[in-house]
Design a protein that fits this description.
The structure is a homodimer. Chain A is globular. Chain A starts with a strand and ends in a 6-residue tail after the last strand. Chain A has a seven-stranded mixed sheet with strand order 1-2-3-4-5-7-6, with helices on both faces. The longest helix of chain A is centred in the first third of the chain and has 22 residues. The first copy, chain A, contains four helices and seven strands; from the N terminus they run βααβββαβαββ. Chain A is of the alpha+beta class. Chain A has a single domain, classed as Aminopeptidase (3-Layer(aba) Sandwich). Helix content of chain A is about 35%, strand content about 35%. Chains A and B meet through helix 2, strand 6 and strand 7 of A and helix 2, strand 6 and strand 7 of B.
Chain lengths: ~160, ~160
């Protein structure tokens, strides 16, 4: 079941981030701060929509998306993280589908996911390509020398509802 | 003379933004909010470095730049605005040079300027190309359908100091 994250999910979200294996120390540290803003100000005002994939009491993965300021219908997919012990169960794809649905219903046209061009992120890039994103733009040596920014874009069809 | 912006510059900065002629209502409204954060928390903590080009008491233009989180040495040039009555005096170029110097001294490698692909922004894009930026990436229909995102990148040489 996918729902907006609740305050009590903070520990499990931090834990999944730390164990995901692809995030830097700085990235791992940034999630609780974003989560606190989400809890304190709400998803709209903070700009961080946290959603979780839950099985009973357990959080198996989460995603963060948010509206890009000064655009008409552009949303950033900041983060999708899945518990390494819950891989290959479709958790990531289900979270992505839930983000897309929510963005579409909010009038979003574009979902943007930024990731790295290094070998470590190959499975992330493959995930985006498999789920309908296109690598529309790249910036060389962005994160650091030898570590390019890859911007993946998914163009959403208007909601059928 | 170019200096960090002072609290008293807020009115002139807002005024230049409104009269610049290229910013949307939403963009014009966003500058005072960024300025308040800069004044309240400082340039580092807010992430918004405001600098102004001053002639006596008068502000002729301003720029905003800031560090891009989770990167090694990437800075965004959020904004350069020049009073329409002070055009062709090199104010924009002087502001850009000051940003570059500051970014270089802070260890920055890349300066990124995002702008629109519409005809209205042609002189902005030409300004970036003339000053050493390269349009490394674009995202179609980003701001709105028919209004592409153009990402200009300038790779900075290390400071000689």
């Amino acid at each position: 079941m996918i729902t907006p994250a609740a305050k009590a999910d903070k520990t499990q979200i931090a834990d999944i981030t730390a164990r995901a294996g692809v995030f830097s120390r700085e990235e791992i540290d940034s999630v609780p701060a974003m989560f606190d803003e989400y809890i304190q100000y709400g998803a709209e005002a903070s700009g961080y929509h946290f959603i979780v994939y839950r099985e009973g009491e357990q959080v198996l993965g989460y995603a963060i998306y948010g509206y890009r300021d000064l655009t008409d219908g552009v949303y950033d997919l900041y983060w999708i993280a899945v518990d390494p012990q819950a891989r290959r169960k479709g958790v990531g794809r289900a979270l992505l589908t839930a983000c897309e649905e929510a963005v579409r219903q909010a009038g979003g046209r574009l979902l943007i996911a930024e990731t790295s061009g290094t070998a470590e992120y190959e499975s992330t890039r493959e995930f985006y390509l498999r789920t309908g994103f296109v690598n529309e733009a790249s910036i060389r040596d962005f994160y650091k020398p030898g570590d390019d920014l890859k911007i993946f874009v998914k163009r959403l069809q208007p909601s059928e509802a």
